[in-house]
UniProtKB/TrEMBL annotation:
It is found in: Membrane. InterPro entries: Cell_adhesion_signaling, Ig-like_dom, Ig-like_dom_sf, Ig-like_fold, Ig_sub, Ig_sub2, Immunoglobulin_dom. It comes from Tychaedon coryphoeus. This is TMIG1 protein. Gene3D superfamilies: Immunoglobulins. It is a single-pass type I membrane protein. The chain crosses the membrane at residues 222-240. Residues 1-27 form the signal peptide. The gene is Tmigd1. Keywords: Disulfide bond, Glycoprotein, Immunoglobulin domain, Membrane, Signal, Transmembrane, Transmembrane helix. Pfam families: ig, Ig_3.
């Protein structure tokens, strides 16, 4: 009896192993542009790019879905079964960092994603003239994006600007480069240039800062106070002479 059990187990083992290998061999897989796993695709502005999703190990028709981020991409009939293509045209700055995902319709856990790495130089140009009164604060702002991120600096009259701790303040994010000047003086007059440089190019923007004489402050409070005093004086005068006024009338 014990011998028969051993034979039974020994016979089942190859059958189970064969079944497991058959399942592994026929497991459905997807690939995007020949990548079976998630990947990053580097590209540049302008020229369109195509993403092709293909079903592997399929013995029947399998529907495919495309997503841009969390949003579903509309596909035409005939572009959904076993192979599906989408085109991004033209490639723009807004496509940078966006994830495109191809999924199997009946099992959305089967998927491959591609992240677009759109590279572009700093896009910065133009000029601006700013008039500011002496002793007032002023802020110069450069708005620019680039990939890879650009190195930023400020020039004054084509020379590197020496930042003074209590007078200048610099603020920077991936899209903003800002210079604030506190209590401007006549010595702050000049041309300020925002410079952004990356391996792909260089962008500049000029600011012409004109510091004007400080205007005399109009004594508004004093005038209002004087007007109130005069009004009250006139009112008391009328009250004091009301009898004479009534007699005249």
């Amino acid at each position: 009896m014990a011998q028969r059990r051993s034979l039974a187990v020994a016979c089942r083992a190859p059958v189970l192993a064969a079944s497991f290998l058959a399942c592994v061999a026929t497991a459905l897989e997807l690939s995007v542009n020949n990548h079976a796993a998630d990947f990053t695709l580097s590209t540049e502005l302008g020229p369109p790019i195509s993403l092709s999703c293909l079903v592997h190990n399929s013995s029947e028709a399998e529907e495919l879905l495309w997503y841009r981020g969390d949003g579903r991409v509309g596909l035409k009939e005939g572009n959904k079964v076993n192979i599906s293509n989408i085109c991004i045209s033209p490639v723009s700055e807004s496509d940078n960092g966006v994830t495109f995902t191809c999924r199997l319709a009946r099992d959305k856990s089967v998927q491959v994603s591609v992240v677009l790495d759109v590279q572009f130089p700093p896009q910065l140009s133009g000029e601006e003239t700013l008039h500011v009164e002496e002793e007032k604060d002023v802020t110069l702002t450069c708005n620019s994006k680039s990939n890879p991120q650009a190195q930023s600096t400020w020039l004054k009259d084509n020379q590197s600007l020496t930042l003074q701790q209590s007078h200048h303040e610099v603020y920077q994010t991936s899209e903003i480069f800002r210079l604030s000047i506190k209590k401007v003086q006549k010595s702050d007059n000049g041309t300020y240039t925002c410079v952004m440089e990356s391996p792909l190019g260089r962008g500049t923007r000029d600011f012409y800062l004109i510091v004007e004489d400080k205007k005399p402050v109009f004594p508004t409070e004093a005038v209002i106070a004087a007007a109130v005093v005069v009004s009250i004086t006139i009112l008391f005068g009328i009250v004091a002479r009301k009898d004479k006024i009534f007699k005249v009338w």
